[in-house]
Amino acid sequence: MTAAVQRREGFASRLGVLTATLGSAVGLGNIWKFPYMTGDGGGAAFLLIYLLATLLVGLPIMIGEIMLGRSARSNAVGTWKRLAPGSHWYLVGAAGVLAAFLIMAFYTDVVGWVFTFIVKAASGELNAVDPKVGEAAFGAMVSNPWHSLFWQWGVLILVGSILLGGVAKGIEKTTKILMPVLFIMLLAVCVRSLMLPGAGEGLSFLFKPDFSKVTVDVVLNAMGLAFFKLSIGMGTMMTYGSYFRDDADIPFVTARVMLADLLVSLLAGIAIFPAVFSYGFTPAAGPGLLFMTMPAVFSSLPFGQFFMTMFFLLTGVATIGAMLSLFEVPVALFAGSGLLGRKPAVIVTTIALAVFGVPATLSFSTMADVTLFGKNAFDLYDFLSSNVILPVGGICICLYTGWIWGRERAQEALSNAGTLANAALVRVWHPLVCFVTPLLVVLVLLRGLKVF
Ligand code: TRP
Q1: Which of 25, 101, 112 is CA-nearest to residue 318?
Q2: How far is the CA of 27 from the centre of ligand 1 (A)?
Q3: Domains identified in the chain and CATH numbers
């Protein structure tokens, strides 16, 4: 190990490697996207497809991306420059940094809504069984430009101040506290929801397989979700991989993160749907479910204000780790370039993200009419990152690790230079990243671009 490598900060403990990586995976994807996609896609039928997508698309790329980051011990751009000097592979990393800005811009906007709703729920303002109350509160919130910007910038300052602490004392320490807190709060809301009369209907909505609802789009949605959920394809996992300890078992950590993340998604579904059905509401998709239906659902049940506040609080808690990992991508790049120290890099990134986020946030008010390709900034940022950069990045990681590195070099890296006996696993992983995974991602990409 060279001196330069030793000086670089990383995750200090095995548990920290796990909680930080899990923290990145867990987020709005679990509490927002997963439940309604499962509902729309035929319950358990979707779950089965999502599991398959995670195994064939998500895990192979995540393993490859973390492996590259740990091998190079550098940021999203520096990793490519170190591993493939003199080539154009670093452009994959540069696109990833752009994606981090795009995702953070709309992500922090939504998290700002969540934080606002924590306050509104706690104050009792949302105590009404009529979804129109939540609807009105939501509409008033997003159409007020200064209010939205205030909360978005507040969220950025909060995340930035955690990152000022560094990798071990900032990211690792925070996720070690937040992940258990999230599980406990989620379990409490689940128990409350399951105890309601008629909870079974919600459970069967979530777990009864209905294969008649499975279409090509449902399958491709499941693959897209596997991408977004595991934070792959844009350098987040590469950056975190560069903080992994030398003795970390990459495939094992990855598998555990995937399972724990799946558990959070399932618990979110169990917290939401039995309560929704018990009070005769219909499960709406997207912001409607979280911000309009859920306040009315909670208002209907005993101790509703308490559980409503807890629900929005746990959603907020879930998003912190994801934002830390996205924010860390440009911070690691700026700090790694040698031009800035870590603290100035955090400050510069906070300001840059605040500026970048303005068009996304104002998409619901002042800038609602400003569109490109028929999309406002919020939708455009989401489209460019989720439908273009993430899949292209994923394909590049597959091709590079599978074809250029090849099995033997990957075996060396994934077995920690022969100390782990996982040759059989690498023998399964290698043909996947060479053929199966990139092929499936190409389909996601083409569908996302509406080619077919
Ligand atoms: N995985 C997070 C979620 O489910 C979001 C996220 C964090 C992400 N980092 C990412 C998505 C990188 C794509 C790429 O909410």
Answers
A1: 25
A2: 7
A3: 3-448 (1.10.4160)
Q: Which two tokens stand for residue 317?
A: 């808690």
Cα 131 vs. chain centroid, distance in angstroms? 28
In the numeric block, which tokens belong to residue 372? 């490109």
Ligand 1-lining residues (CB < 6 angstroms) = 24-25, 27-30, 103, 228-229, 231, 234, 236, 322, 325-326
Tens of pLDDT, residue by residue over 83-125, are: 999 999 999 999 999 999 999 999 999 999 999 999 999 999 9
Q: Tell me the best of 24, 32, 182, 331 to mutate to test the pocket of ligand 1, counting ligand atoms within 8 Å of each CB and taking the most.
A: 24
Amino acid at position 258, single letter:
M
Distance 232 CA to ligand 1 centre (A): 8
pLDDT digits (tens, 9 = 90+) for 191-239: 999 999 989 988 988 888 989 999 998 999 899 999 999 999 999 999 9
Distance between CA atoms of residues 96 and 449, nearest Å: 18
Nearest atom in ligand 1 to 318's CA: 15
316: CB partners within 8 A, 6+ apart: 111, 114, 115, 118
CA-CA distance, 218 to 358, in Å (whole number)?
A: 32
Q: Which of 53, 34, 41, 46 is nearest to 266 (CA)?
A: 34
Taking the centre of ligand 1 as the mean of its atom positions, its distance from the CA of residue 230, in whole angstroms, is 6
> From ligand 1's centre to the CA of 132, what distance in Å?
31
pLDDT digits (tens, 9 = 90+) for 423-449: 999 999 999 999 999 999 999 999 989
Tokens standing for 237?
């996992």
Distance 394 CA to ligand 1 centre (A): 14
